[in-house]
Amino acid sequence: MQYRLLGRSGLAVSQLCLGTMTFGNTTSESDSIEMIDRFFERGGNFVDTANVYVSGRSEEIVGKAIKDRRSEVVLATKVRFPTADHPNGVGVSRKHIMDCVEASLKRLQTDYIDLYQVHVWDHATPIEETIRALDDLVTTGKVRYIGCSNFFAWQLMKSLACSDANRYVRFISVQPQYSLVSREMDREMMSLCLEENVGVIPWAPLGGGFLTGRYTREEPTYGRLTTKMGESSWGVRGTERNFSILSAVLEAAKELEKTPAQVSLSWLLQREGITSPIFGASTLEQFEDNMGAIGWNMPEPVWNRLNEASSLPSEYPNRFIAKFARPF
After folding, report:
1. Separation between Cα atoms, residue 299 and residue 290, nearest integer Å
2. Is 109 among the domain residues?
3. Stated pTM of the model
4. What is the CATH number of the domain that holds 92?
5. Is 215 annotated as catalytic?
6. What domain range is 100 assigned to?
7. Is 225 domain-assigned?
């Protein structure tokens, strides 16, 4: 396992991050704890959860699994979504942040969170209020670093500008959806993160399971994509363009004698600006498959083929800038 610094911080995280959204749901508590133990044995140290995953059950399981090795772990969780049935039970107001951090600390059986992330932008709360509240949590030691997730590029830049102007703590990372079949972040977010040295820790690096190769062009009769909800729904994933990308992945997997999941994760691991893809697994078998993405490098010609097959169409202003705005 290799390690990388997260953004402009000195925090060293493993090149893969273990996502825990299924813990306590499709993954039993015993398998979840076994998964975390195996992850640590392979050198992993970065674990991501959220206060709303399985109504807090995920945090409880993670806390139980890491309590005897807390100092070894880079623990990430999130705040934003509803946790109570009243007007202040949602968002990133000072009140909701302060209420939620205490609840997360209790479930996680710890007195600090390494990376506390805003799950989604909150249009109802001024960003100055949010960043100040997070800055206070860092000052008191309950949080070590802060990050964000599912932001537009302008929202991230506005947040960074707020921090710089007021000398508040800065977001060191962003957690966007990013994979071979979801590269929308290439339009603006990736270049911003490179410019501002913000770490990128992608969720759904396998396209919600689509890039494992288990689905065909016929509508599936089982699996996560059959839920027909959210980003990892059949309507979002099962497009002709995505199947064309998947064909390139399957070809590369055959050529390299790797699995499609390992190829897809390896492509991300070798992409500039990516710190730690967050992979999830419902079973120990899936976990072992995903862990096979480390310890080898994809040949450059194969990487380039996948990059070309999955790249976004040429769009303004990128095509204009590429043609007319050369530095010399």
Report:
1. 19
2. yes
3. 0.95
4. 3.20.20.100
5. no
6. 3-209+259-298
7. no
